[in-house]
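Let us practice reading a record.
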Amino acid sequence: MKRLIQVSVLGLASLSGLAFAANPPSTKPANTSANTCTGTYPSYWQDIAPKFSGMWQGQDISNAPTGAYSGPVFKLSDAYPRQPVDDKANQPWRAAKFDAMFDPATSQDKKAKLAKEYAWLVYNYALSGNVNRPAQTDFDVCENPVRPWYHIAFQTYDPLSGREFIHGLTREAPVTFSIKSGTGTAATTMWAVAIYNATAAYTLGQVWQKDGTAKVPSANIHFDEGSVIAKPLFNTATLDQLPVLANMPRWNANISDPSFCATPDNATMAEQSQLCPRNYAKWNDVKLMQFDISVSDKRAKGTGWVYGTFVADGRRKANVKDQWQRVSLLGLMWGNDTPPPGQLAYNFPADPRKNGFKEEVIFWDVVDELNSFGGTGTVQRMGHLGSNHRLNGPADNANSSCMSCHGSASVPDSTFTTPPLLAQFSDMTKQSVALVNGLKTQGLDRSGAVATENNGVTFSEMDAIYFANVMASTSFNMTTPTGKNVMGDGVPAYPNPAQKTWISLDYSLQLSMSLKQWMQWQADQAAQTPAQSRKFVKALRRAQ
């Protein structure tokens, strides 16, 4: 089978080797009075600090403040804790009352009630000290007066997705929505920024060092219990296109074309900077559409993680005073409700709207509210959810789920290859396929795309891979029950030839993507690739 990506890398073997400190966790929160933004790592793509200028040499500069700009400038929070931190005293969702949520025998009504309370506790934990501060930009986390929060380093080498300089947003998925106005569809882009609590940031600090370098993990990594990651996602649609975004938080950001600027696959980084310039004055504000949370929780027996998605609900909650509270919980999940062997994800479990899921909760009134703004394209409505209505937000792919994507998070190999976030991003057999009546090897996925079984891998085998429950810090399995590697022989190809399985990054796709950027920067440096010739091997992004 053809490799997904083939690129040579120089000198990556010396970057491997990651050891974790065996220190007991501190029960005291990290110092909240200290400024956590040190300037050790670049804060944004085209960061003007002299020590980072080599990263954007030869490019057209459109992502740096000018003398005429007087607004906020993003700073990366990168003073990662060097000792474990347990913030349990401030995490009420860890109480025993929530144990029942993870019990398959718990009634759907009780499970939904607990899921809603759990998710809102996490959401408000993430907001505390980060919003509604006098004379302070929301989510400027450098000096949070309640608890420290951190960003992931090195989302700054890719010209197309790299952080913008005002809020630190990175470009994510292109999303086409079905709408009621105009042509019936709206081509939009998602821009997002994630923050990590001190518990999670301790793990980041095992990779991103005090001296501004990375130790690429050579073994599976693990985020400690109580790690919290929160990510607001903003969209470029207008209010005419998506009225549900009315009354939501909106940011002026230094983005590229709102309809998702694309460049030829062979474009150099210098050409990308020319073809997709950033401009905070030209484009409209981005608006909060989605807010994702993820929590390391050992009660999630199959995965070790809980994922939740809040969505914009600006019309129904227009009278809520705090704009950050004008969201509603779309759902919470801690497993993929894995199909039994031989069954397909698109219709398992049966009728989840009526019968519910075992490992997640969906709030159907919120789904209906989102879909009420859409046109006739059912899978392009905002409430499309994931495969067979597993949890996935408006920004996410309808053929997957939150956990099926994030479970694939792995260290890039020597060719910058990682497992695709979903099978549709490759030439493999697709996932979440409904068979054509009377046929066994041909069907359509939820987007309506034609799908065939490829390379001897069946649809049910691919579903079994992507909708398996991957335990935290466990290698993502890309083989069928018969042992066939669906990505091809010799994949992954790590510097250590004895490493035959994917090195897990414990559900952190951001860590995987940032390491890919770091590794390409190091390879370009080692090879002394001229600035005008440098090309970025694109990350496999969410798409719809």
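A brief commentary: The radius of gyration is 22 Å.
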